[in-house]
Amino acid sequence: MSTGMHSQPREETTVLTKSKFKPSVQKRMLVAVGAAMATSLVLSGCGAGSRTAANTATKVACDFAKPANPVTINVLAYNSSAVDPYTNTMVASCSKDGVTVKHDPIDFAGQVQKTQATLGSDKGSYDILETYSFVVPTFGSQDKLEPLDDYFNKYKDKYGLGEISPEMIESVTYDGKMYNLPMQAQVHVMAYRKDILDKYGIQPPKTMEELRAAAQKIQAGGEIKYPVALPWLASSDIATWYANTMLAQNKPFVDPQSKKPNFDSPEARKALEEMKSLLPYMDPQVTTFDQPKVQQQMYNGSAAISVMFSGRMNDLVQQKNSQYFDKIGFAAPPAVTSGGKTIASLSVDGWSIPKNASADKDLLFQIAASSVSEEASKASVPAAFPARKGMATEQNSPYAKAANESMGNVPAPQPYPYIPAVTSAITPIVAKAVGGQLSVDEAVQQMQTEAEAAVAKS
To answer: What is the pTM of this model?
Structure first.
């Protein structure tokens, strides 16, 4: 919903029951931020649409002082296999001593709308919000979220918060203030059919050139017509891949010092060219595919290589989901060039407290902290990749090694409030360029113009 900060949108788009951050569609956004922000938030719904079990609650210590009067705490978080374990634990463990914690099932679209309403009013309807690193700079700069630094330091020992990854904490920190208590991370991972790659003597591709070569070989075999599946939904996800392809070349959308957009750069052109080079190996309807549809291609065997957020990986190895459940392998996504950064991003999901929450914020933080305890984090594996260090391993998670490798080589994030507006402005242009409606030169010129205007307004 980025290692540091999922600089780009997250993932989803067609809202299933994901919800996920990620993708996605538009994510929790202030009404004041407007359509631009909504689109960018959309881009990030990390585990949206994942299949989830209802009995994922873990009973943990939630030792707050009993409030003087009964209080109901309303939690807003989308439903997904990666987030539900934490939400369910919060409800099961902290509903006591006059406190009732409520979390109603909601999909991604619903969360977007309700977050807009909650943060855009004087008194919100929710006390604890699921947010992610991509939106922290916007919400932080809008002064809509409560800084959590003092609470974190106060309860660091009580809830073992010192074991939360410092990198993930950094990714949800803006202008020196922490606005989100990390629960779990979503990083791009490549999933592939081991049997297909073995059949053609192919190693998991590490570069775009190797990916094209692998796809060409598989396609020529006649077994799988379109071997590559990527979430390139034209209204959102496609911009995530484009951003990651630029960042993998060490070129952000906007130069952080000069605030000059970089779409007139050679890297911006190359990113579009690299994307277009994959079209012969992908379903012609790829610009209508969000992550659930890519996941479905892996389920039904119509694709052999895909890239999605890690929150979807465990679903691929469940026998109930696919006949290919025992033939799936995982690796870090490819880089543009050998030795470069991977075409990936990291998004950190966690709990935020709205500034306008009416309940005692000390109590709210303790409720959130209890849900990311060591016990709760362990119980969330392998559906989630916990923010606590060392929770997901090769022994308890089939994709942990690939996720760790991906996290260790993701491009630097873009933690700036103007990035969502820029992302929103250039998304339709990227889609037209990839779809052949614009030449690469026309596209980069238009993106440069639109991005300059978006930065100027931010």
So the answer is: 0.80
Q: Residue 138: which of 277, 251, 39, 54 has the closest Cα?
A: 39
Task: Give all domains of the chain, ordered by start, each with its CATH number.
Answer: 31-186+346-407 (3.40.190.10), 188-331 (3.40.190.10)
User: What's the pLDDT at 12?
Assistant: 39
Contacts of 191 (CB under 8 A, 6+ apart): 298, 305, 306, 307, 308, 313, 316, 328, 329, 330, 399
Work out the pLDDT band at 29, boundaries 50, 70, 90. Answer: very low
Average pLDDT, the chain: 86
Q: Residues near 41 by Cβ (< 8 Å), separated by ≥ 6?
A: 1, 9, 10, 24, 26, 27, 28, 29, 112, 134, 135, 420
